[in-house]
Amino acid sequence: MSDTDIIDQLKQGSEAAFKTLVDTHQKLVVNTCYGLVQNREDAEDIAQDVFVEVYRNIDKFRADAKLSTWLYRIAVNRSLNHIRDNKKRKWFHSFEDEVAAKNREVMQVSTSNTDEPEYELENQQRAIILREAINSLPQNQKVAFTLSKYEELSYQEIAEVMDLSVSSVESLLFRAKKGLQKKLYKCYKKKCL
Amino acid sequence: MKCKSVHNKLIFFLEKELPVSEMEQVQKHLDECSECARFTAEMKNTLQILDNDKVNDENPFFYTRVKERIAKQAEEQPAVRPVLVRILQPVAFSILLLLGVYGGFKLGQAPKANIAGSGFTEQEVIPYWNELEAEPIEAFLMK
């Protein structure tokens, strides 16, 4: 079933069409959210909200637009809202909570079944550093980088999702990579890598 | 090519986004400089995490949860508030806020009492508060 068929049937209230839409685009939405919020549970939670929004606003969907672009946009906006709300909440969280959360993340891997626990632990620490570095990027750079790395979208596709020109996306990705490189080098110098 | 220049291009080198000539220059430097080669390996390992850090498995209960959420939201949808409440409430709050600001300005501009004219100057009032000044310790001991 093509996207156009799904949309047409969904506008007529077909449950089967909605199930097809969710099943075919679930990974796309969850991955986009995950790339931005960096937490699987939160990503699934936001992705569910994305599909609820699609269900409610399907009549507003323009026939000439691409369904995936619309889904990416909603997913990005919802994820950014989630990050913003979380930042506000973090004001009231203690530093100890933050440290405990980080330790839990590391322990999760160190206790998992693996033949090379040390290597896994090292990788987990690298992942935390990389996430911190990505999270510290300016919002637009982070969105462009996530869409490029997690969804492997082309510059043109990212430009459509972000409503920017291709050259702006190029520039955003260039600056994002430069920023990441700088942060990783700093970390390497401080021996935290 | 210097180490600093290599560090600036490393991420683009690893992503194979540099022109061929620059790729060769960076590679040549890495073959000669062990420190840069070590950082390159570390950076490569770190960036590779992104390739494995994707959600590849689908949650089989995802659709059911979406449907549950839609049903729940439909139940919880509050009755539409009357237009008067929706408009009157913000208007009332705005008026209160404006009155507060206006009151604050008025209090700030209130005429000041003429303290000097009331007959008490600072010099006259202080002795009553400061006993030492009113009666020095020497005079007290002399008594």
From TrEMBL, chain A:
Q: List the transmembrane segments.
A: none
**Span of domain RNA polymerase sigma factor 70 region 4 type:** 129-178
Q: Which InterPro entries does the record match to this protein?
A: RNA_pol_sigma-70-like (IPR039425), RNA_pol_sigma-70_dom (IPR014284), RNA_pol_sigma70_ECF_CS (IPR000838), RNA_pol_sigma70_r2 (IPR007627), RNA_pol_sigma70_r4_t2 (IPR013249), RNA_pol_sigma_r2 (IPR013325), RNA_pol_sigma_r3/r4-like (IPR013324), WH-like_DNA-bd_sf (IPR036388)
What is a single molecular function from GO for this protein? Answer: sigma factor activity
List, for all copies, the residue spans of the domain called RNA polymerase sigma-70 region: 21-88
Keyword terms of this UniProt record: DNA-binding, Sigma factor, Transcription, Transcription regulation
Similarity annotation: Belongs to the sigma-70 factor family. ECF subfamily.
Q: What is this protein called?
A: RNA polymerase sigma factor
Phylogenetic lineage: Bacteria, Pseudomonadati, Bacteroidota, Bacteroidia, Marinilabiliales
Automatic annotation (TrEMBL), chain B:
Name the UniProt record assigns to this protein: Putative zinc-finger domain-containing protein
Which positions, given as ranges, span the membrane? 87-105
- The residues covered by the Putative zinc-finger domain are 3-37
Supply the Pfam families for this chain: zf-HC2 (PF13490)
Q: Which InterPro entries would you find in this protein's record? A: Znf_put (IPR027383)
Which controlled-vocabulary keywords does the entry list? Membrane, Transmembrane, Transmembrane helix
The record lists the organism as Draconibacterium sediminis
